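Tokens as discussed.
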């Protein structure tokens, strides 16, 4: 064998030994994935996104690569992280986990295609001009978590009809907080109950909030729709049981972790749909031609074991309304 032939064989063998991602980074499309939290609490949502990509024929490490950016619950980092992904010339920027990510992506680029996943109204928040014709470089998926905040208060009142006061906990940094509080105040007026509004975006304040509600003997806590609360479901469930305070959040993670009740959009479906849309765009469809997909399914989880620990009886009407009853 000639020396030149031997060198070609050796180089070819060395290249084939390299990981696929290293060898093919330049030959496969790269997705930028922006999220407000860290990978661990986002795991189920990320899996749903990958499932959606797979339905469209794309698998990470095979025919796509993904650059991840995690804000680690520091939402003020989202604009810089989005800008970094845009600078890397990603094929699609996927902004997940709520309005803060979507707005950061919108600010970062007018040319890179953006697929967002959020719980609020993207038109009201200025993310897109229209649901049916989003226009420009953005489209995505929206669930109904923000719009149904008032229903959580109504369910709490149904659970505790004798209570005349409830506490609402909201994230002051969320762009959807004002609209949610307006809806909750309207619901409170109709129910003839009083609301105490508390705001926090600091997990260290959670215990003080629960202790205060327990001491004042307020009926219970209604959390507004916000990813910051959704991703801290385990902590909220632990505190609710410790201080014997009934509470309801948007995320099924809360009753699954031992909390009482949740009511909100199906985040698994919204992230799966975001994956499907990303795949369709990678195949050549334009974001302006893809209407914003609305996930209309709203799910209710009730934990009867938690209810017993809290000393409350869940009425049959709530049990029959629940999608999942945890016993």
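Sequence:
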């Amino acid at each position: 064998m000639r020396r030149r032939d031997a060198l070609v064989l050796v180089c070819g063998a060395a290249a084939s030994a390299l990981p696929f991602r290293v060898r093919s980074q330049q030959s496969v499309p790269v997705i930028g994935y922006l999220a407000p939290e860290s990978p661990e609490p986002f795991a189920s949502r990320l899996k749903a996104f990958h499932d959606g990509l797979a339905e469209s024929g794309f698998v990470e490490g095979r025919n796509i690569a993904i650059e991840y950016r995690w804000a680690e619950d520091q939402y003020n980092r989202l604009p810089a992280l989005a800008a970094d992904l845009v600078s890397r010339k990603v094929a699609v920027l996927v902004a997940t986990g709520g309005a803060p990510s979507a707005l950061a992506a919108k600010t970062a680029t007018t040319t890179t295609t953006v697929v967002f996943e959020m719980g609020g109204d993207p038109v009201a928040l200025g993310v897109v001009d229209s649901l049916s014709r989003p226009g420009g470089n953005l489209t995505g998926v929206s669930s109904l978590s923000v719009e149904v905040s008032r229903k959580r208060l109504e369910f709490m009142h149904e659970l505790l009809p004798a209570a005349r006061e409830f506490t609402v906990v909201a994230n002051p940094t969320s762009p959807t907080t004002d609209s949610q509080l307006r809806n909750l105040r309207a619901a409170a007026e109709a129910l003839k109950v009083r609301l105490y509004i508390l705001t926090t975006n600091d997990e260290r304040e959670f215990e003080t909030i629960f202790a205060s509600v327990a001491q004042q003997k307020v009926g219970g806590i209604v959390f507004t729709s916000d990813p910051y609360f959704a991703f801290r479901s385990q902590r909220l469930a632990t505190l609710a049981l410790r201080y014997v305070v009934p509470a309801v959040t948007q995320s099924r993670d809360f009753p699954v972790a031992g909390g009482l009740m949740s009511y909100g959009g199906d985040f698994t479906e919204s992230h799966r749909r975001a994956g499907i849309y990303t795949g369709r765009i990678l195949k050549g469809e334009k974001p302006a031609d893809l209407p914003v997909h609305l996930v209309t399914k709203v799910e209710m989880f009730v934990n009867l074991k938690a209810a017993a620990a809290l000393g409350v009886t869940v009425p049959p009407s709530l049990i029959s309304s629940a999608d999942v009853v945890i016993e």
